[in-house]
Task: structure prediction
Amino acid sequence: MRTAIGIIGAGPAGLFLSHLLHRRGIASVVLERRDRDYCERRQRAGVVEHGVAEALRASGAGARMDRDGFVHDGIELRHGGRGHRVDFPGLTGRNVLIYAQTEIVKDLIARRLADGGEVLFEAEATAIEDIGTDRPRVRFTRGGAEEVLECDYVVACDGFHGIGRASLPADVVRTFEKVYPFSWLGILADAAPSGDELVYVHSPRGFALHSMRSERVSRHYLQVPNGTDTADWPDERIWAELEARSARPGWTLNRGPITDKGITPMRSFVTEPMRHGSLFLAGDAAHIVPPTGAKGLNLAMHDVMLLADALGQWADDGDTAGLDAYSATALRRVWRAEHFSYWMTTLLHTDPEGTEFDRRLQVAHLEHIAASEAASRHLAENYTGLPRV
Ligand SMILES: Cc1cc2nc3c(=O)[nH]c(=O)nc-3n(C[C@H](O)[C@H](O)[C@H](O)COP(=O)(O)OP(=O)(O)OC[C@H]3O[C@@H](n4cnc5c(N)ncnc54)[C@H](O)[C@@H]3O)c2cc1C
Result:
């Protein structure tokens, strides 16, 4: 099998890249080890930055997002029974959209297939070979048989546990990592959202986040110790803890049947460089952020927007300047998002090894954000997404 761009992974990064390349007339094949149903059900992120929503819209893949997504003009930071609203348009002229990653994946799969795109499900990449040449190959298995995909470039959009990162030569790669001493217990519930916007809660009992997926479905998160088993969190305990952490006069938590529970460990991770020879990394294959800043999905989309432009330049006139600059350019946004995600995480979570001094500093910081327009703007411009570089 032969194509111009071999893409590993049908997450948001791989699918959006394949879609953007198609619009530029560049052929690609997407290899995905899971089946379509699994990819379309996976519950993950839900906040879409202003610029990413614009890019989806401009690419012709934003119609359902604009119909079913919610425009959010702010978030609430809550602690000690008080809330501070960060007004995004007032501070930055931008907003965010609440539209689940799983819906973006559905939209992009439907669009690729309608456009005749090749998305091969249950096709697991097992090796990436000859990345030091201009004829790299991806070995993959499908239906029990081994096949080979030959291409001009390979883009590994295969997430944190894929084979892309491990295929870079060990002597050229550096990785940077921070593992946090807590995880998130996330739930989906058939309950109306408990407000119009996301609420980020700092409390001595730990962090909580109130979010939503639709007018009838809420998504909530609780900080829990690493190694937590969802079996130790029956529904009643979850609702009671959400209420205890988030209480504020005049606010009530809407309860309903919990339909999904999961644990997400919190990690910051960066791989440098994001390219070697004819292999590129994009999205979670190259970097991970803790979800507090809502940046994981958005960073993945920014990587492939950059790569699609660079591959377009190469396809148009053989100019590889964009491809040569890809890693350094992408990493500038990655490190900014890494810092913002770390900042939000350490501001809002309770460090189990922290002292009362640390907690007093967090409260002082939260009060400063509430009192200072400049401090609120810092949060708002990072949260809604910095302009493209
Ligand atoms: C449980 C969980 C919850 C999250 N919650 C949030 C959140 O609330 N907010 C937020 O901002 N971010 C969140 N994230 C992060 C966000 O979802 C990711 O940043 C985003 O999915 C990155 O997209 P991606 O396309 O790079 O990778 P992925 O979405 O991971 O896609 C990678 C794809 O590659 C496939 N693949 C892997 N190996 C192979 C192989 N060898 N061959 C073929 N295919 C392969 C996988 O099956 C997968 O479909 C969460 C992540 C997880 C894991």
Summary: The chain has two domains: 5-71+96-177+267-344, 179-266+350-384. The chain is about 35% helix and 30% strand.
